[in-house]
Amino acid sequence: MKKEELLKVYRTMKTIRSFEERCDKEFMQGNIPGFVHLYAGQEAVAVGICSHLSDEDKIGSTHRGHGHCIAKGCDVKGMMHEIMGKADGLCKGKGGSMHIADLSKGMLGANAIVGGAPPTAVGAALTAKTLGNKTVAIAFSGDGASNQGTTFEAMNMAVVLQVPAIFVFENNGYGEHTGADYAVGSKDIAGRAEGFGLPTYKVDGTDFFDVYETAGKAIKDAREGKGPSVIEAEAVRFGGHFIGDPQNYRAEGELDKLREEKDCLKIFRAKVVTDFDIKEEELDGIDKEVETLIDETAKSGISAPMPDAKELNSDVYLNY
Q: Which terminus of the chain, N or C, has fewer Cβ atoms within 10 Å?
C-alpha cells in the first residue's frame, strides 16, 4: 500500500475509535436514546475488509455496526445525527444505532437480529451474479451469530448457488455475555464452516495487514466467480455488550491487558512507523483532525431538530 493509502486507513480507524468514544460519552449524558453497542477495539477488521470495496459492493452489518458504516464510507455527521434520533440523520432519525443504513454506499443496514446479515448478503450476492457486475457482498457477524440457523442456511445456499459472498465472523470472545469458548461447540468457527464446502481463513483481527491481505484474496476470488468464502477474525471488544454493561463476566484485569497489548490502532501505528515512511507526528496530526471532526459532529447533533410527528408513518413500508 502507498503512504497515502496507509494514512487513509489510519484516519478511518481513528475516526471509528473516536466516534465510539464520543457515543459513549453522549449516551451517558442522555443525548442518545435506546441501546448502543460499541465497536471500539475491532476497527482493523472493518477497515481491512472495506478497504477493498467500492460503493457498488454491499455489506450487511450487526447490532455493533458503527464501525462497518464508517469503514464503508457512510457520512459521520449523518450517522451521529441518526444515532441521536434527529431528522437529518441517515435514516431521518428512525433507525438509531442498531438500524443505520445507506444504500448509496452499499450499506444494507445494521441489524439487531443475531445472524440477520448472512441471508441478506446472499440475496445481494445473487443479484451481483445475475447481473454479472463483478460486485461482492459481505456479511459481518459475531461469534454468537456463527451458531444461528440463518447463518448455516445462508452459507449452504451461497455454496449451492456459487454466489460472490464473503462471511466475516468477528470473534471477539463474547456473544453478548457468553464466552465463545463455551457457546461454540467445535471451538473453531472457521473449521466448522468448512463443512459447508467453501474455503475458510483465520486472521488476527488486531492486525490490519493480516485482515487486508486475506480479505483481498477472498474478495478477488469472489469477483472472479470462484464462489463464497469465510473469514474468522479473532478480535477484541473493548467495551461491554452495550454501554452500561457491568461486565461481571470479565476476568479481573482482562480489559486493561487487552487495551495494552491488543489495541489495533497501537499495533498499526507501530508497524507503519517502523516499516513505512510515516512519522509519529503525521499520525498525531490525524488524531487532532479527527477529534475536531467528531466534536463538531456531536455538537451539531445535539442542536439538530427532532423528526416532525407528521413523519411517523413515512418510510415505514415500501409501496410497489
A: C
The string of DSSP codes covering 143-167 is TTGGG-HHHHHHHHHHHHHT--EEE
Other C-beta atoms within 10 Å of 54: how many?
A: 12
Burial annotation 167-206 (CB, 10 A radius, 16+ → b, else e) = bbbbbbbbbeeeebeeebeeeebbebbeebebbbbbbbbb
Boundaries of domain holding 90: 3-305
Burial class (CB in 10 A: 0-12, 13-18, 19+), 122: buried
Spatial separation of the C-alpha atoms in residues 16 and 24, rounded to whole Å: 12
316 within domain boundaries: no
- CATH number of the structural domain spanning residue 230: 3.40.50.970
* Position 49 in a domain: yes
Which residue in this structure is represented by grid cell 470479565?
Answer: 250
Structural domain count of the chain: 1
If you search the block for the grid coordinates 455538537, which residue do you land on? 299
User: CA torsion angle for 58, 42, 28, 88 (degrees, to 10)?
Assistant: -20
Cell reading at 285:
496530526
pLDDT for 175 equals: 87
DSSP letter, residue 298: H
Judge whether 320 lies within some domain.
no
pLDDT number for residue 176: 85
Instruction: Average pLDDT across each block of 10 residues of the chain; the chain has 320 residues. List them in order.
Output: 96 98 97 95 98 98 97 98 97 94 96 95 98 98 95 98 98 89 91 96 98 98 98 95 91 91 97 95 98 98 95 80
Do 114 and 144 touch, CB atoms closer than 8 A? yes
Q: Which residues, in sequence order, are bridge partners of residue 174? A: 179
Q: Does 167 fall in a domain? A: yes
Cβ–Cβ < 8 Å for 168, 139: yes
Q: Which of 39, 40, 36 is nearest to 28 (CA)?
A: 36
Q: How many CA atoms lie within 13 A of 109 on its CB side?
A: 16
CA 210 to chain CA centroid, Å, is 17
**Cα separation, 191 vs 168, whole angstroms:** 13
Cα-based distances in Å from 16 to 13, 29, 79, 134: 5, 20, 11, 28
